[in-house]
Specification:
The chain has about 80 residues and is mainly β. It has one domain (about 1-75). It has 1 helix and 6 strands; from the N terminus they run αββββββ. A 6-stranded antiparallel sheet has the order 1-2-3-4-5-6, with no helix packed on it. Strand 4 and strand 5 form a beta hairpin. The protein is globular.
Amino acid sequence: MRKEAKKIKGTFDSITQGGFGIKLGDIKIEGKTIAFIIDDPGAPGNPTFKGALDDAGAKIAGEFSQSGLTGTFSIDKEK
């Protein structure tokens, strides 16, 4: 139970698709590398993300893949 309490959790909002609070799963952080999956049975095409935190610690950028398509994706820290 203690190990489960330390597990990183997160959610994803897709404003353009009207999806809010979508659960992230299999979140892995190794150094500055970050990876996760969209853990929603209704999400088609095995959506995954793999990226890295920049040196300033202000942005995570990388590739998002779903249904055989890949594109860039980034998250900026709110000021």
